[in-house]
Amino acid sequence: MKTVVEMPMETASEEEVIYQNPLLFLKIWEICSDSPHHGLSEKCRWHYHKEVEFLAIIEGRLGIQTKHEYTVIGPGDLIVLGSSQLHRTAKLDPGRLRYIVFQVDLSQHFDQSTMPYLHCFSELTQPLWKLNYIFRDNADARQEAYALIMDIFAESQSRMRGYELAISASIKRLMLLLMRTDTEGVLGGVEDTELTRLRPALDYVDRHLSEKIAVEDMCGLLNLSYHYFIKYFKKVMGLSFVDYVNYKRVKKAERLLLTRDLSIVEVGFEVGIPNMAQFYKLFKRHNHCSPKEFKQRMRGEAGVGVSEAAPQA
């Protein structure tokens, strides 16, 4: 892996990532090129997407240019690009180039027990591309991360029963690996005392999801001013209080859809969103499908298609 000087940048485009499985919030595929041509081209234009991207090289060499640096990686190497990070890639040699592109919305892979760690990957203070020093300096971590990405790719191709569990577990192992090998503190962390201070508010949200929950109620509960509370909550949890409450409502709705014989309207009332238009909009924002589609997919009544198109890395 080699890093050289920053290079100039042209117009960039935002890329919409079409998830292979909308319930896993990811797309992973292999790019293989035998073309003798190499170097930056129109096909490798500047682009960005909200998903975090990992590139893992199987064969050949790939150049990755960002706003800050230009990096060359070869077989067995990988690189991470943060959410909405501008980048473009280039084939460097005339021979074969094979690599895996893994795009994932990491924020969707946190559940109630792991929410305190969302802050580490939210990129509020440090961009995730700074974690590439791990892959450059720690051979063991690089090999383990590479193997996890290959496992995710293999599971996505085989689609054997339970492949969703296998992929979800590998994603969590990948995040855990990055946290435990981040000796430079890029991911930071949340102090137990900070979580303890917020615990009354978090418990209140859990108990009152079916009701209206106001920021002012939390301020009174914790004896904090409005502006201090909203800043402090986002610092500790990695997302705003409103987004946190909406996240909890959607997660409860998912559980109700799969475990209770309730109508969509009844589920909306149970999670404190009686306005159906608002409920559908919020649910679709988190799951990229309607509540009905979610229920069908999770219960196996409708298959999840795999996108045939392979967008650029």
UniProtKB/TrEMBL annotation:
Q: Which terms in the Gene Ontology molecular function aspect does this entry carry?
A: DNA-binding transcription factor activity; sequence-specific DNA binding
Work out whether the entry's keyword set contains Transcription: yes
Name under which the protein is recorded: AraC family transcriptional regulator
Q: Which UniProt keywords apply?
A: DNA-binding, Transcription, Transcription regulation
Q: Does the keyword Phosphoprotein apply?
A: no
HTH araC/xylS-type domain location, by residue?
Answer: 199-297
Q: Which Gene3D superfamilies does the record associate with it?
A: Homeodomain-like, Jelly Rolls
Q: What is the lineage of its organism?
A: Bacteria, Bacillati, Bacillota, Bacilli, Bacillales
Q: Which organism is it from?
A: Paenibacillus tyrfis
Q: Which SMART domains match?
A: HTH_ARAC (SM00342)
